[in-house]
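hey can u check if this looks right to u? its 380 residues, i copy pasted from the old doc so theres a chance i mangled smth
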Amino acid sequence: MPATQIGTSETLLEELRNWVLQETPTTDASAVNKLVDKAEAELRAVGAEVTRIPGRDGYGDTLIARTPASPAHGNRRPVVISGHLDTVWDHGTLDSSMPWKVEGEKAFGPGIYDMKAGSFLAFHALREILRQKVQTKSPITLLLTPDEEVGSPTSRDIIEREAAGASAVLIPEPAGGPNGACVTARKGVGRFTVKIQGVSAHAGGNWTEGRSAVVALAGLIQKVHAMVDLAGGTTTNVAPIWGGTRPNVIPPEAGCEIDLRVATIEDGERMEKEILALAGSEDGITITIEGGMNRPSFAENPDILNLYEHARRLAREAGYELPKQHRGGGSDGNFTAAMGIPTLDGLGCTGAGAHAPHEHILWRDLAPRGQVITGLLETL
């Protein structure tokens, strides 16, 4: 059992409520930074060494909090725990369609499952370790980032820099499935934008003079769909799509976005080349494609399995079984696992509905899930 006392699920839920009531859409840096302000003040108050890296490109700040240097840590490398504060939900969601509410075992609110509950538990664990002056086996570094939901464009370098010197990385993304599984592998993620230029013409009087960008797009979509290999773990999805202006005008412009998921880094490199190779010009149609692999594949390995078994033992002490799963969605754990740093993901709270109107957590699991996070931070 962890030496740190983290409180009951009831007390954790009440504090988490304040995080959920602060709406933090990725696109509003000032809103995200209000929650960063709160976390920074409370961590400074208990003696954390805090660095705040100003945001750029319209995104919020990144907060780095470290345990103070201690002779007991010797030359041990730190344990990094990284969570994001941004959500996919726009301002006003609380008032319009997803109010904070608790119904039985479920607590609802925008971003509560993905991933304010997990980021809060990471913050709470570090705060209480420092407040209660519990000696941990290794130094701890907590990252709270502002832009994971759009691919971590400004925080990726920071995450990778901190992970490079770490012994392990913990990611408190939501636990998965009805049994609350943690994550020992994730697919790699690629994102592409396709733009097609054709030639406009009157659809009746001058049809032969036009070159339809929409028809070209339809052909490209079929080629991308044909790249799906379910057995090999490769999927593609084309959405959204756009093109054309009026029914009587041959469309000169069209486009789409492509989502790519792959099982291995090698598959990602191969598929990126195949998709980009669809660009080119022929018979009045020009296709341009931008993008590439955004998150490398996160592959299970013996070091990750050892980390998982450690967490599994702590979960049993907390009174529950902790299964593991491989997940198709990406996270910041993809970056650190691809670096060869043992990474355990999906350590957040149980629930369901990420990015969906029924998003919720099973709030009674806050304390046992938080106990495992705290135990990992104390003993790794």
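The two ends are 14 Å apart (CA to CA).
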